[in-house]
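Narrative summary of target 7.
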Amino acid sequence: MFTPREIEGSGEPGNNDETSWRSAVLAHDSAYDPAHDHAAVSGEPKILLRAKGLTEKFDEWRFAASEKLEKADLAPDLAEGIGSRRWFRGLGTLLGLSALSLLMWPDFSPLEAAPAMQVDEAARDEFRSQMILPLALGADTGRRMGATPAVVELESAPERPSIDILATLARGDSFGRMLQRAGVGSADAQRVSELIARTMPLGDIESGTQVDITLGRRPAAGQTRPLDNLNFRARFDLALQIDRIDGNLALKRVPIRVDDTPLRIRGTVGQSLYRSARAAGAPASAVQQYLEALGDQIDLDRSVRPTDTFDIIISHRRAATGERQAGKLLYAGIDRGGESRTQLMRWGSDGRFYEASGVGEQRSGLVAPVPGPISSRYGMRRHPILGYRRMHAGLDFRASRGTPIVAVTDGRVVGAGRMGGCGNAVRLNHAGGLATRYCHMSRIAVRGGQSVQRGQVIGYVGSTGLSTGPHLHYEMYRNGRSVNPASVRFVTRAQLSGDDLRKFRAALAKLKLVEEGAALADLVPEASERSEPEREIEKLERPKSAN
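Modeled conformation, tokenized:
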């Protein structure tokens, strides 16, 4: 009998030791005799060996085969030992396997199609009855709607008794041409234009307006259809309807009740005044006007805090039919701690914003008369034409011929015409004893005595007078004496007083009484505006009036 030490062997564990161990076990199994087993008789511990199964035998075979294949080295790494015998042996293995794969590539042979179906005349008629033939046979889908030889064609197809059309007025188009393109006869289109012109100018109808048109039956073959009905929204508060009554077209005005309550929006400034106002529901155009009005009056970066409250009031209209229309900014305010810090309201025909005290918006700084760089500054210089040094009492702006020249601030035209070496020039008087002159114009756009506003075009760049090329010579005077235009900054402020100031403050107080979101509620329809008759059950639910 083998002891555990004898079975384990004396060498290091490995494949050879395992083979020796297996051989020793096999030899021991064949020579084992329980009668002569001293360990069994004496009670010493012994080793019992069980018979091998198919799984163990397969593992032994797989192990032996893997050792042989590993020694054969049939698939070496082609990235190592390039050009050696081992590398060429691996290349041969690769080529052989590739050739074997190509030999086993499947063959794609064409499949034989099914034989053609024999279709007789009855089957062909059956198929035709189930086709979609809207153009060829005048049918739709379905078995009974397909045309067959039994169908007799009509000499002329019947027309619809009336046609409903939706036409849209395009930009730059006239109302009459739009009607004629929609199919309205020239006589009816002219009559409709005359009826509408008595109510409102045709040019006041906005582009994009949609017109519902109903054309009636033709009086005779080849003639245009007569206009039976036409209606559209002429204005936000007015709808027009034209009907044919006893052969004549008649116009009916349909007034639409409109509420003009302004829309007031308030909220916390936060990190971004623009984003906070937009998040509160203010239109983008109104927020831009709000920021522009405040920017002309205060420094938005320094004067507005994140904890302040913005106050925006815009004109707003809501119709009884449900439409809404937002207008321009009416009031711009900033509140801090429950008190108004800035209050600006639009007032007057010019649409200028005024403070609550009646002082108009403040505009600081000059507007450049032309969008060009300065080519010659104020001071002594050598004249390019006269050839000697003399005082250059102004600034020269480089600009191309025809560039618009604008007034640097509000003023009145006191001179417009030829002015010696200045050529065509315009002279403006401003508040505070200031005056400006614009020389070498190619064309003058204002006349003497006219009032101009800041940024208004007064002429165009040229090269008239003593000039070597197109440019603008710009001069400024204070109490009649020439000054350097680059050293002056204008501040334009309007001031209300007397009756105008009282009206302004009354309008401001009334405007600030508007509640937030009051303009967003729907108008309650009146009895004449109900589209459906009142039901008897609704009359019963109505509270009875006290006698």
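The chain has 13 helices and 25 strands.
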